[in-house]
Specification:
The chain is an alpha/beta fold. About 30% of the residues lie in helices and about 20% in strands. Keywords: Hydrolase.
Length: about 290
Amino acid sequence: MATSERRTEKVSIPSVGATLVGTAYWPAGEPKSSILINCAISVHQAFYVRFAEWVAEQGHLCLTYDYRDFGASSKVHPRQSEATISDWGVFDQQAALEALLQLADTPKVHVIGHSMGAFMMPLHQNLRKVDQVTAVACGHAYWRDHHLPYIFAVLAYWYLLGPVATRMKGYLPGKSMGLGADFPAGVYWQLRKWCTSPTFFKCDLGDTLPLMLEEPFTGPLRIMSLTDDDVAPTASVDRFASCFKGAQITRQLLHPADYGIGAVGHMSAFCKRNAALWPEILGASELKNAAA
């Protein structure tokens, strides 16, 4: 839908057992590509507004959205939600991709996943409809991957404070724990199971998760890690990358100092203060097309 000015549009996204709320950021003129942003687990789509607006300024259509029972897609309190991370990462992420494809027919489709927004992509049946995938700060993290002193926070989250708080509240009280947002207990418990298993989500394949395709994606896959990211250490990124045997993988380890910025860590690559990273995340090919 070409327009003379950039604009935003609310989008209703039908998923399995839920309806999600998304926002489409339209460029001025015909979109040169379509880009989907899959959120990290503890942040709302509003976290990516500045990045999405910048993407639209470069000439691309960008779609953000919230998972079921979270953010703008929330219809009940997290305590009443039965959502799991399987719902978010399998049903909702695939539904959002289908919604993006319905919005416009563009020469290229690019999915950008932030942390949890990418780590379930090996299970996506429709990823073959995508031309390029970018995973930012993503890893299949097993608790033993982490190093001192961060491992103490990991142990508390999975074995002490996290389980106790979730049982007491009936949901994960992420706001009070400094994690950004509250979310359903089912999301926490399933993620806890994976992050305390050396095989990560493979322990649920064929049960609460679909079986993984031998080659879920064969196109260009950029896996971008940050040197100061304690949440997704190298071993966890290796585990994620091993799920894409047929993909054209490029691994990038980004040093914040090389971009003239300070600490980025696991969550802040999409913050306005770290906008120097955005051309790297969007990719040289998209920027070249935007300038054409």
